[in-house]
Every structure is written in C-alpha cells, then in structure tokens.
Write a structure and sequence with these properties.
274 residues; Glycerol uptake facilitator protein; 2 domains; Aquaporin NIP-type; MIP; Aquaporin_transptr; transmembrane; transmembrane helix
Length: 274
Amino acid sequence: MATGDRIQEEEISKMEEGFNTTNRGSDYHLGFFSSKDIVTILQKVFAEVVGTFFVIFSGCGSVVVNKIYGNVTFPGVCVTWGLIVMVMVYSLGHVSGAHFNPAVTITFAIFRRFPWKEVPLYIVAQLMGSTLASCVLALMFDVTPKDYFGTVPAGSNGQSFAIEIVISFLLMFVISGVGTDSRANGNLAGLAVGMTITLNVFVAGPVSGASMNPARSFGPAVVKHVFKGLWVYIFGPIIGTALGGFAYNLIRYSDKPIQEHLADSSSCFNTSAK
C-alpha cells in the first residue's frame, strides 16, 4: 500500500509540474504583452503621434487658412506655431518628452539623452502624426497649389538650407538649456521653446518656411505630392540641431577638465544610449 501511495503521489506531482509549466508559459506570454516597459513605450509613441498631429494641424492649418481667407496674417501664423508647440510641451512633455521632431529625437540620442532603440519608433510616430494632420487639412480645405501649406524654398535651395541649419541650431540650443540642464527652471521649458519657434518663424518664414522639423515638411509633401527642395528640410534641421546640442554641451556645467569634457562630447557620436 505504501508503494502504491508513493507511486500515486509521484504521478500527481508530475501532473502538477506539467500544469505549473504550462501556466508559467502562459504567464510569460501574457507578461510580455502586459509588460510595464511595453505599455510605457506604447504610451510614448501614441503621445508623439497625437502631439505631432496637433502641432502640424494647428501650425499648417493657420498657414492654409491665411492663404485661402487671409484672416490670420503672417504674425498670427508665427504666434500659432509657437503657441501650439508650447501647449503640447506642457500637455505631453511628462509622457514622451514632447519631441514631435525627428531632428530633436536624433540629437538627443547622439548625446546619450535618449535610447537609440526608441529612435525609429519616435520617428515613425512623428511622421505618422504629420501625415495624418496633413490629410485632415487636405480634406477640410480646397488646397490649390498656391495654397500649399508645406515648405518650399522661396529663393535658392542653398539659402534655405543655410537658414534651416541656423534656426534649428537655435531651437536645439534652447531645448538643451531649458530641458536638459538641471540648473534651468524646467517649468518654463514650454514657454521658452514656443517663443523660440515664434521668433524663428518670424525671421525665416518668408525665406524657407521655417520648418526646423523634417516631420513638418514630410507630411504636407507626401499628401500634396510637392517634393521640391524636400532634402533641405530633412538634412538642414538634423545638422542644425546636432550642432546646437553640441554647442550647449560645451557650456553645460561639469567638474571635469575642459580636455575631458571635449573628449566626452566627441565620443557621444560613437556611443549608443543604454
């Protein structure tokens, strides 16, 4: 009887082990899809889609309304761009960092303030948000070629390329100062960034359209099939923001010798974020 009971107990134990193994496998798969990290990344990506959508919808919307109806005026367009960026920074900055701009995302990654593995997700989200906003505007308004709400060089491509680098430099310099430096008042980040964009649009709007953002130019170009000078608005902002981020890193507080500080800044181009 003892032998029989022992055999029965062993069989029951094996059955329980198999049941537990199956449950662990199910829990693993369930855990993967309900992982906190996955949920957090999805929230960030969604925030970038929504934020970029409303930045482009409001900013480009003011452009197309002004061109069709003439009621917004150029200063109104400038202020609209600054206001919508400020509003979205305060609304979503705590969720995704409120990049809304592939050039900003890439620059943060270069200087190890954003993980490279999330860069493609952010860029896809930003391009998607811009394209969706452009589609909505194209459906809402009868946009003729003269009412195009994208960016096209008013002069030569070289002139627009140069000014995009300069204004993107300023934008990233300000973002680095108010958004990444612990000495700055982070509560004013949205206001400072929004005002910088307003100033940049005032200066560069008549020349290049003041994109500062590859996504801002990509969406309207794809929806309305206007690709003239598009490379200017892809490479110009990326180069400008990278230079702006590098420049601010040179004046960021550090207790290291200047030689080591410069070496660290240079090594950022060869080091991925963890």
